[in-house]
Design goal:
The complex is a heterotrimer of chains A (314), B (271) and C (528). Chain A is mainly α and 314 residues long. Helix content of chain A is 77%, strand content 0%. With 271 residues, chain B is an all-alpha fold. Chain B has a single domain, classed as MetI-like (MetI-like fold), CATH 1.10.3720. Chain B is built from 10 helices and no strands. In chain C, helix 2 (19-28) packs across helix 3 and helix 16 packs antiparallel against helix 17. Chain C is built from 19 helices and 21 strands. In chain C, the strands form 6 sheets. Chain C has a 7-stranded mixed β-sheet with strand order 8-9-10-1-11-19-12, with helices on both faces. In chain C, strands 4-5-7-6 form a 4-stranded antiparallel β-sheet, covered by helices on one side. Chain C has a 4-stranded antiparallel β-sheet with strand order 14-18-13-17. Classes of the chains: A mainly alpha (314), B mainly alpha (271), C alpha+beta (528).
Chain lengths: 314, 271, 528
């Protein structure tokens, strides 16, 4: 318990450090928001006027602390580029991202672990090999390519699901699920192999241990041994890889968002980074950092809980 | 080496084939890498075995040269990320306490910074050269390897044999390489096979940020992207490099599986 | 059979027969679906616009950071959104002339220095307020004032005074400019109540639609403005814009019927897209061009022979074939093509490795030229750079290509680095194109071109009201630019849009932007 509190406190410190780094990073990048907004039609006067209006003439440190104090009071401010409320825009985008990530995870995580267990059970026989070959092929094809192929055959040729995965408040759950069917499929294919192969490798690693032999000698069947005795002891690497992939589902799906026109966080961040819209980049950056820090923490805690020797340190 | 299973043979064969093609690219390629020799997206013919690409270059030549870039960068980046990530991960696990805390939180920090911002900052302050590219990819990936290596190693450090080694007064390095490494090898080998694939794909992502290889050079992922418009119209120029990536990925992982098998059987002695 | 078809066509024209019925009966007569579909479209078109329905547009070029402020609009989606809810004084018509919108008419003083615009009466803003000449003045002030941030500032310079006289808006210029009305068609210059000074992003204007839903970078929905004054614009009840930046995804959305029209079909696959029976490819020639630009004041490009070597070392036809896939025409190292009103054809410069090698030798340069490019400088730019590298290679000129990040290309590379790829959308007149980028003092003089004779001709042409003389002046200027300038212009691109056969009323235009200068969603209708 003390550990968890300590980690959470550290987490907040880390977030602060992340915000400094991201702020510094965006300041280092050449170009500023005024120039990006006006683009090719920027004249020196218009630039100067826009900079003045957006407060870009203040020193960077002042801007950072202004932002920090406002953020600590729960005010994320407005986007410099279009003046829209950041908290409002992000909450909409974030809920879309989480919706997609949730369904992709709900399908891919259990499926990956199940396939991993099957692969171990039938190690070196055809189910193992087939699972390996298919998941490896799916992971090594660039994700946009899988996206295009599914889009062309399933959306354009067969017309089963829409190619534009736009969801809105007016839709019920079933309609939303239909809209995101294609991106969920692609994401599942992309993350499946990593988790499945780690499950397989980690379990194989403990299969040689004495207690597995004991369990087998007790007369337990193959699946029981794997699921009850080997799996819990192999959980640390598996949970780490699962968390990595969950993090990917939340922060790394820009390509899928672009291909399926899905209004999530990834594209939102990319758009604002390219416009050097610092407050938005900061807000998105913090959320993504919190996702990583949180998931890593969960992975560490699960690893400790799963291992009695770690649970009760000497 | 006598009883190499058939799947490992296949894997070894293709891996070796691709690596040899990469090494001897200039001897094998029928045309120059950047040479425009025909029309756009010509189908395969005796002149151009795999047809031509989106601006009329010979696809086979381009893929042979592209394989060279891809394999070289991906291999170098994977090795770098593995060495750094696993050594630091093991070190953190064995030392524990504040060393572990500092390293782990630092990794959290690096992982938390969006790759896009990271890459753009690197790009704006450093010259874009191959070593920089490999360094950036290797270090970004090593954070993931670190997490895995540490997680596996933490479970091992509490085992009796590690305790025993500590009591014997063995040095940290000895414990890491003699006790932890052999027992953590399986998950790491599996991860290495996959990291290699991620690296192959990552190169082409970076190309589009301007951090990757410079045109007219190409990597396989980049060739897929150059020709992507043709995909749904059955233009093979986009699919062939993807097939190349997939076969390379599968063969590397077949080899990894074989190594994994050997490492697991090393330990138990249960035949 | 003919009689029957004619009868059916008249039924369609009268709105008594739906598409489905027509197609069914046509099939019974043994007419193929594709032919019947075209016939139906023809009959329906003859009948004139059908009111109602929803038109969905898949549009490229928007981001989630886009603003609704007309002063800050800088991409295709933002421009299309502006067209829905607002209007400028004048607009380009499809034939390159002027189309009066909020200005009913206009006239110039004999020396083209004072311009008077008569403002249309009885037009209301979508908040119910009546639009007056004062609103026009306030709008122009917002885009031209000392403290403006407007993208239109560049063209609003040279205005000495603006005033209102009853329903007239009067502009007085420093120097004569015969092209002022064309400049006022700029898409930033939408008339807003009070000039939009209080709330520039309110999206209140006099346009044919009123925005109901705004999600930047995702989706915009406009509903028909019931008070709109012009019956020929705005046929659908609702227009929905869906931002689809990925080329393949945009085409797929059209093919699967999720949208009625898309802009910027990738040229490489355009033929294949157009082959589908229910899709019409719409190509529009215009003044847009893809360019390689050299700074004429920076070594080694300050050497005229080296510039000439590079100009002879580019294979323009190959670029048109392989980058534009034939959807465009070869350039001639000037920004002007036949879409400009006072155009004169100059002798076409061809790819000539021998001449290139000759000029390279003359220049005494024997190093490597660094060419910067990025994917967003124009579609296919890195490929074009690779082609250029190859064709120059045969002439002994070494080009090294550096792919720059898309991010920051326009702020860090374009107009900063001495040799890079870029594009120009073109301008409605020669004067505005030349003064934007080739006048020695222009803000966007991206070739650092400085030629006294050129500048003098440009100023002289503005006050010249004799068309023959003016045409000759522009031809002379193009020649100077072609031979002396830092511009290598291999190709003029066409706009390639596509519509499904569910919508009708496309107007072929030769002006402005894609999607019929972004009027297609409003001048087309959903076929019954």
């Amino acid at each position: 318990m003390k550990l968890v509190v300590q980690r959470i406190a550290l987490g907040f410190l880390l977030l602060l450090a992340v915000s400094v780094l991201i702020f510094a990073g965006t300041i280092i990048l050449p170009g500023d928001v005024a120039q990006s907004i006006l683009g090719q039609s920027a004249t020196p006067e218009a630039l100067a006027n826009l900079r003045e209006e957006l407060g870009l003439n203040e020193p960077a440190i002042t801007r950072y602390f202004d932002w920090l104090f406002a953020a600590l009071q729960g005010d994320l401010g407005v986007a410099l580029t279009n003046g829209r409320d950041i908290a409002e825009s992000i909450s909409q985008r974030m809920s879309n991202t989480l919706f997609l990530a949730f369904w992709a995870a709900l399908i891919s995580v259990p499926l990956a672990i199940l396939l991993g267990l099957i692969a171990v059970r039938y190690k070196d026989r055809w189910p193992d090999k087939a699972i390996s070959a298919i998941t490896l092929a799916s992971i090594s094809i660039p994700e946009f390519l899988i996206g295009y192929l599914l889009m062309y055959f399933i959306a354009v040729k067969l017309g089963w699901f829409p190619s534009v995965a736009m969801i809105g408040d007016h839709m019920n759950l079933l309609q939303k699920l239909q809209a995101i069917a294609l991106p969920v499929m692609v994401l599942t294919l992309v993350v499946l192999a990593h988790m499945m192969r780690m499950t397989r490798a980690a379990i194989l690693n403990v299969m040689q241990s004495a207690y597995i032999e004991t369990a087998e000698l007790k007369g337990l069947t193959g699946f029981q041994v794997i699921a009850r005795h080997a799996f819990p002891n192999a959980i640390a690497p598996i949970v780490n890889v699962v968390m990595l992939n969950l993090a990917y589902l939340v922060v790394g799906v820009v390509v899928i968002e672009v291909v399926f026109v899905y209004p999530g966080m990834g594209q939102y961040l990319v758009d604002h980074v390219s416009k050097r819209d610092v407050p938005v980049v900061q807000a998105c950056g913090l959320i993504f950092a919190a996702v990583y820090i949180g998931l890593n923490m969960i992975a560490d805690i699960v690893s400790i809980l799963a291992n009695p020797r770690l649970r009760h340190p000497k | 080496m006598k009883n190499i299973p058939i799947s490992a043979m296949i894997g070894l064969f293709f891996t070796a084939l691709y690596f040899l093609m990469a090494i001897f690219a200039p001897l094998l390629a029928p045309y120059g890498m950047a040479e425009v020799v025909g029309g756009v997206w010509e189908p395969s013919s005796s002149k151009h075995l795999l047809g031509t690409d989106n601006i009329g270059r010979d696809l086979l030549s381009r893929m042979i040269y592209g394989g060279r870039t891809t394999i070289f960068i991906a291999t170098a980046a994977t090795i770098l990320s593995f060495v750094t990530g696993s050594v630091l991960g093991f070190f953190a696990a064995v030392m524990g306490g504040w060393v572990d805390q500092v390293l782990s939180r630092f990794v959290d920090l690096i992982m938390s910074i969006p790759t896009l911002i990271f890459a753009l900052v690197v790009l704006s302050v450093m010259p874009v050269t191959l070593p920089v590219l490999i360094l950036v990819m290797g270090l970004l990936d090593s954070t993931r390897v670190y997490r895995l290596a540490r997680a596996v190693a933490v479970d091992i450090t509490v085992m009796d044999y590690v305790e025993a080694a500590r009591l014997r007064g063995e040095k940290i390095a000895w414990i890491i390489f003699r006790e932890i490494l052999p027992n953590a090898l399986s998950p790491l080998v599996a991860e290495m096979g996959l990291r290699f694939i991620f690296a192959v794909l990552f190169v082409s992502t970076l190309s589009f940020l301007g951090l990757g290889v410079q045109p007219p050079e190409a990597d396989w992922g980049g060739i897929v992207k150059e020709n992507k418009e043709g995909i749904v119209y059955g233009i093979s120029a986009a699919l062939l490099p993807a097939v190349a990536i997939a076969t390379l990925a599968i063969s590397v992982n077949l080899v990894a599986d074989w190594v994994l098998n050997r490492t697991t059987s090393l330990k138990g002695g249960r035949g | 059979m003919n009689d029957q078809l004619n009868h059916m066509a008249s039924q369609v024209a009268a709105g008594k027969m739906t598409r489905r019925e027509f197609m069914g009966k046509a099939a019974a007569l043994g007419i193929s679906a594709a032919v019947a579909s075209t016939m139906f479209a023809g009959a329906a078109h003859a009948a004139g616009p059908v009111k109602g329905g929803t038109i969905r547009v898949g549009i490229q070029g928007g981001g989630s950071s886009d603003s609704l402020d007309p002063a800050l609009a800088a991409n295709a989606t933002a421009t299309q959104v502006l067209r829905l809810w607002g209007e400028p004084l004048l607009e380009l018509d499809p034939n390159g002339g002027l189309w009066p919108r909020l200005a009913e008419s206009f006239e110039a003083s004999a020396d083209a220095r004072v311009w008077t615009f008569k403002i249309r009466s009885g037009v209301n803003f979508s908040n119910g307020q009546t639009m007056t000449a004062d609103d026009v003045l306030a709008t122009m002030e917002r885009h031209s004032g000392e403290d403006t941030k407007s993208g239109a500032l560049g063209i609003m310079r040279g205005i000495k005074d603006m005033r209102v006289d009853g329903d007239q808006f009067i502009v007085e210029l420093d120097k004569p400019n015969a092209d002022l009305p064309y400049l006022l068609t700029d898409y930033h210059l939408l008339i807003q109540p009070g000039g939009g000074k209080d709330d520039p992003t309110a999206a209140i204007g006099t346009g044919p639609y009123v925005l109901k839903s705004v999600e930047p970078g995702v989706r915009f929905v406009g509903e028909k403005n019931p008070d709109y004054w012009d019956d020929t614009v705005g046929h659908a009840d609702t227009i929905e814009l869906i931002v689809i930046n990925d080329d393949t995804a945009r085409v797929a959305a059209l093919q699967s019927g999720q949208v009625h029209m898309i802009n910027r079909v990738p040229p490489r696959t355009a033929q294949l897209v157009g082959r589908a029976p229910n899709i019409n490819l719409r190509t529009t020639s215009g003044p847009g061009h893809y360019v390689f630009i050299m700074h004429t004041n920076t070594a080694p490009f300050d050497n005229k022979d080296l510039r000439m070597a590079l100009k002879y070392g580019i294979n323009r036809q190959e670029m048109v074939d392989k980058i534009l896939f034939g959807f465009g025409s070869v350039g001639n190292d000037t920004p002007i093509n036949s879409s400009y009103p006072l155009f004169t054809e100059l002798e076409q410069r061809e790819y000539d490795p021998d001449k290139a090698a000759f000029h390279l030798k003359e220049s005494g340069f024997d190093g490597t030229v660094l060419l910067r490019t990025s994917d967003n400088s124009f579609p296919g730019a890195p490929d074009a750079a690779a082609l250029f590298q190859q064709s120059c290679g045969s002439a002994g000129i070494n080009i090294e290509i550096k792919r720059e990040p898309n991010d920051g290309y326009w702020s860090e590379v374009w107009n900063k680095q001495p040799f890079c790829t870029s594009y120009w959308g073109g301008r409605p007149t020669q004067d505005s194109m030349f003064s934007t980028a080739y006048l020695s003092t222009a803000d966007w003089n991206d070739t650092r071109f400085n030629n006294e004779q050129f500048d003098q001709l440009l100023f002289a042409a503005r006050g010249e009201l004799d068309e023959g003389k003016r045409t000759q002046m522009y031809a002379d200027m193009s020649t100077i630019l072609r031979d002396e300038g830092g511009l290598i212009c291999p190709m003029f691109n066409q706009f390639i849009d596509a519509t499904t056969s569910d919508v009708d009323g496309w107007i072929d235009s030769q002006n402005g932007f894609d999607l019929n200068n972004f009027y297609a969603p409003m001048t087309m209708w959903v076929a019954a």
